[in-house]
Amino acid sequence: MDASESTLPEQAAGRHALLRGWRPWAIAGGALLLGIFFFRGGKQTASANPAGRAIPVAVGKARKGDMAVHLTGLGTVTALNSVTVKSRVDGQLVRVAFTEGQMVREGDLLAEIDPRPFQVQLMQAEGQLGKDQAAHQNAVADLRRLQSLVQQGIVSRQQLDTQTTSVAQYEAALKADQASVESARLNLTYSRITAPISGRVGLRLVDAGNMVRASDANGLATIAPIQPINVVFAVPADSIQRVMSQSAKGSRLPVEAWDRDLRNRLGSGALAAIDNQVDPATGTVRMKAVFANDDRALFPNQFVNAQLLVDTLKEVVIIPTAAVQRSPQGSFVYVVKEDSTVELRTIEVLGTDGDDSAVKQGLSGGELVVTDGLEKLRPGSKVILPKPAGAKG
Question: Under CATH, which number does the domain 55-70+314-384 receive?
Answer without folding.
Answer: 2.40.420.20
